[in-house]
Structure formats: structure tokens, C-alpha cells
Protein 1
Amino acid sequence: MTSTVPDVSTPAGIIRLGSAFCDAKALLTAVELDLFSTLCAVPAPIDEIRDRLGLHGRGLSDFLQLLVALGLLEKSGDRYRNAAGADQYLVRGKPSYVGGFLQQANRNLYRAWDRLPDALRTGKPQAVGDFSDVVGNPERLGHFIGMMDALTQVLGPELVGALDWNGQSSVLDVGGCRGNMAAHIVKAHPHLEGHVFDLPQMEPFFTEHMENSGLTGSVLFHGGDFFRDPLPQADVVVLGHVLHDWDREQRAFLRRKAFDAVGPGGALVVYDRMLDDEPTHVENLVISLDMLLVTDGGAEYPVSEIRDHATVLGASSVRVQPLGDYDTLVECRKTVS
Ligand SMILES: C[S@@+](CC[C@H](N)C(=O)[O-])C[C@H]1O[C@@H](n2cnc3c(N)ncnc32)[C@H](O)[C@@H]1O
């Protein structure tokens, strides 16, 4: 998928790009109001939408028409209905729901981006509070998990299909959150023993998720700090959307530790929104700036960083492939003995 930007060789295109945050905020507001869940299976005229959502009514027609123009709603007669994509991905409770990412973007990233100039001047993150505040507050941790689940929900089937899992007997997802990616992998390949390593505060969320997924006992949780505590060994060790939270030295430390945890003949598998050496990919540059705004030293990084390090670590081969629309997967194999 390629990102499109308006024609910025014209004043109209430049102004349009400068107003793109309004389009985004319209979508984020619709998700915050849970408009798409409200309209799921029950198209409604404007007055009914106003009443269902408890809105004033002023501006509502323009708001709904903007969502039509953005392709998120459709209108037939006087009734608004969800367009196909909104109906599949923005209705709460559907397994394909990605609104968790948007809700957290609205709560956290939207405000942080307002402070981009401060981040660029100081090099300091601008989000309210740091990750220890999130981890220490179950409600905020739940919001964070919703954001991560939205990503792994899309990438799970991609990762399942991207690797040859035959001949492997275990998988460890380091920084695996509440185990959503591990659940995808083990469901598709039940011969695998699943392991998730994450901060101890994640365990109750993990336990509940495994119960709901019917995977209790098939995926095990290991609580700890990956900078201080040992990692369990596994044939395939995954580091997904983890390295971009940290600075270059910390990324190298985590890669070494994860590669050491790989059993003979296994692989370290990294996925992230990696950048080209001369990056022009709008979506991934935006995510890299997200990392500037919400972490102390994180950023997206080029594939070459992993490739070069894999040689130092002694990987027998390195394979790179796209994963989903925006991510890159790097598989670093370990020799059999
Ligand atoms: C950005 S999320 C990635 C989640 C998931 N792997 C994915 O693909 O989206 C980073 C994960 O690393 C975990 N984490 C952060 N610091 C950690 C630490 N010091 N030790 C263990 N896990 C940590 C977080 O709790 C979170 O689940």
C-alpha cells in the first residue's frame, strides 16, 4: 500500500495537506463516539443518530457528510450506513476491530503531535506521563493493549504465513503484550509450544485473553524485564514492534539477548515499521516520529541495522520480506549446532 499526499506543488494542495489533521480528527471522533458500532446493521437518519449518540445536532450533517466523503459512511435516501471497511474494522466487538489503535491515537498521540516542535527542540518525549505510568494503571494498560491488539490482529495471519513453522517446536514472543500474536501463531500451528515474555503487570490480561481464546496452557507467560531478567529458550524468538521503542544501543542489546535465546536451527524474527536507508515512506516516518514523541530514545531504523548486526551475532542467513502493508520482517537463522 502506498501513502498518497496531495499535490504540494500547488497552494491548494499545500493547504489541503495542512488540514489533513481535520480528516484524521473526524475519524478519531467517530470512533470515540462509537458511531460505527451504532450504525452496524441498523442504518439511521440524522435525527436518530443524534439521539442515539446524545449529540446536539449542530454540525452533525457536515460531520456525517465528511465521513461519507472520506469513504467511511454511505448514504442512501436519508439514511446513513457504514461503508464496508468501517463496518468490518470499526465496529466494536468484531474480531477484526482496529479501533483500539485509533482510540489510543486519539487519547495520546494526537495531543503529543501538538508538541512536535518541543520534541524537535529538546529531543524529549511529549506524551503525558511515561510507560511506567501506563503499566501501573490497569485502565491505561488496557487502552495500550487495545492499541497493540489492533496491530497484531492484522499482522498475526501475515506472520503465520511468512515463516516455515514445520520443524520448529516452540515460539517465544518477547514483548508479546497479552499474547495476541502468540495466540495467532499457536492457533494456526497447534504443535508449537507458545511463550510470551512481558512485564509482570501484563499477566492478568494475558491469562484472560488465553482463556477467551481457548489457549490456556498452550501459551505460557513469563513476567520480567527484558533488560535485566533471563529469557526462556525457544526455536523461534520474535521481537515485534519492540526494538523501535529503544535507542540504538538498547536495540543491539535486545537483539543479542533474543538471538542467544534461539535454539540451534531456529531463528530470531524481528518485525517493525523499518525505514529504507533514504526513507520516503510517509506512514513509517510518521510512526518513527510517534516514537520520538512517546519514548526516550526510540525510532524506526533501517533493515541494514539488523542485517549488519546479524553478521556480528553469527546468524547463518538473513531473510527480509515485507509483512502486511507497512512492516518489514527480518528472519535471522541460527546454525543447527
Ligand atoms: C510496542 S509493544 C509491542 C507489542 C507486540 N509485540 C506487537 O507486535 O505489537 C512493546 C511491548 O514491550 C513490553 N515491554 C516494554 N518494556 C519492557 C521490559 N522492560 N521488559 C519486558 N517487556 C517490556 C510492553 O509491555 C509491550 O507489550
Protein 2
Amino acid sequence: MSKNDYYMIQGEDYGQMAIQVLQAAGVAADIADKSKRIGIKPNILGAKKASEGAVTHPELVDGVLTYLKKEGFHNLVVLEGAWIGDLTSRAVRVCGIYDICKKHQVPFVDLQKDAFRTVDAAGMPISVCEEVFRLDYLINIPVLKGHCQTTVTCALKNSKGLIPNSEKRRFHTLGLHKPIAHLNTVIRQDFILLDNICGDLDFEEGGNPVVMNRVLGFWDPVLCDSFAAESMGYRPKDIAYIRLAEQLGIGSTEVEHANQVVLGEGIPEKETMRHTKRVSKLAAYADAKDACSACYGSLIYALDRLDDAGLLRGHRAGSVCIGQGYRGKSGTIGIGRCTGCFEKNVDGCPPKAVDIVQFLREQWD
Ligand code: SF4
């Protein structure tokens, strides 16, 4: 195992996919001591269902608890503090994670009710909930999704659920980026199981889910967030909190030098997502034939970046081809390896949104 490794699996059996990622990464061997207190930190932002694109899928928490118990770990706790606008006690029930905790007889700790202490986070005093200091190992389960202030939210920002509400308010007045980076100098993130199933296009509260049907595993939260940024069409160093976290020594932004381990079949199921109005508007630029979810999702994120830059205007609907149905076929502009016979295409299986953005900019500028 190297801090540079990351694991990726695609499909729809999310609980099983979580177990496969943990097994491939060797998380049990990394924890080693069976008596260790292990915290599992999902993203339970508010009273939402995971299908809306805002909160962690309960199937992933189920997979993690099943794996850990089977490996002989029993000192487990699921912990979270919802955002200021909601009660954790309500949110954890609505999203289904409370039932998963009950099923495994694992306690859920509501951090909105926890005491806290103020610590020095690389020169910045930050208040952190007491329960965090009782943990010997933390498995973070963030959702890869957009955010109205920080553009991307993932592993580093998911740590904000481990601080009291008063500190969350202060973080917002400080502009989020700097305190998020500093917080992660005192929060451990031993393993990150990334929920990239259907995170939101650009808003942390959900409403416009983009189906990718992927689960990933990372050892390095900065690498995880850098991957997330590229998956949404951004360069990691353009996101201030990711850049700052690297400068503080928390991890690396160099996704291109990381080692990707693909698990399972490699080729995912075909995209069948039902689009919201907003996503449908972007999807209208694509002519999809049997596209995989991850490929199609990357294109949606890329089109959203191009829309932000005002570059979609003047282009006709269906002008970008994507999907397995184009294998061996000719055409003009294609996305992904399946369109390799087109006049122009961006390679990758699936390609990253950041590469699609650059490719389409070159064609359309
Ligand atoms: S390039 Fe083809 S096979 Fe690969 S993810 Fe895209 S649609 Fe699927």
C-alpha cells in the first residue's frame, strides 16, 4: 500500500462495491489492532435522501460496518454533525444511516450535542468535537459534489461535520477555504471511501444529481479532493482549500502521478439516469448511444464548466457524441475511447471532465 494508490469500482451494488474497495486497499491490515476505536464519518448534511445528491449513501456505511465486523473490529462508532440549518437527529433518520447503525448495533454520535475543545491547527485556533479525540482510526465517507462557495466539496470539507455549530458559523465568516485546510492538520483521515454515486452538479444541498455510479478509496485526502476537482472539470490548484492543504503538508494534488487501481469488470453499466431540468439542458448538447454513467457524468460536469464560461451558446444540440454505440464508427466530435475513429476525440475510459473541458474549448473557442 502506498499513499499514492487509489482504488475505483463502478456498478450499482454499492454496499458490495464498498467492501471490495476496503478489501483491495487492505484497510483491516492498516488498522491492525482489533481494540482500536474506529470512527466512520459519512456526510449527513441535512434531512435528505442520497439519491438527491447531497448525502452519503447508507449502503456504503452498511458495507463499511459489514467489512469491519467480519474482520473482527467491534469498537466502532458512526459520527456526524449536520449543517447548521438542520438537526443531526432528524437528518440521520431521513437518510437511512440511523437504521444501518441499528442493524449493526453500532452507536451513532450526534456531534451537535457533543462537547468540544479548541486546538492549535497549524497556527489557527479551531474548536473540534471531543468525540474526535477518542478515535484511533477514521474512515471518512464524503460525497463528491459541487458547492456554492468552494465549487467542490469532498474529503477535506467533510471534516467540517466534526466541529461544533458555533465553529461552522465562524468558518463561513472566514470564507471557508483557509479554515478547512487548517482543520485538516488536526483531523485524522486514515482512509477515505468516496461516494461518487450521484453527487450534485454544483450545490451541496443536492437537487441536480449527476449519476456516476462509482465508489473510490483513497489514503490521501488532498489527492482525493484533487481527483474530485478534475472529475468536475476544475484544476485542483484552482480550488484554494485544496492548494492550501497541500502547502500545509496534508497531501498531494498530483493525480497524474498517483496509481489508479481499477476493480471489478472495468466497464460499467449503461447510463440510465433520469435528468432534472437543469441537467437535461446540458445533456441536450450530447448525442449519447449506450454511454457508461461515469463517462456521461464527466461530460455533464464539463458542459456545466463550459456553460459557466459562456461557451455553450451558439452550439447545436447533439453536437458531441459519446458512448459504446459509437465504437468503430466515424463522426466529428467524440468523447471517450469509444469514439476513437472520430475526426477529433478526447481519449480516456472514462475521460476526466477537466480534459473534456480543455478539448471542447479548443474545438469551440
Ligand atoms: S469510453 Fe466508452 S466504454 Fe469507456 S467509459 Fe466511455 S462510453 Fe464507457
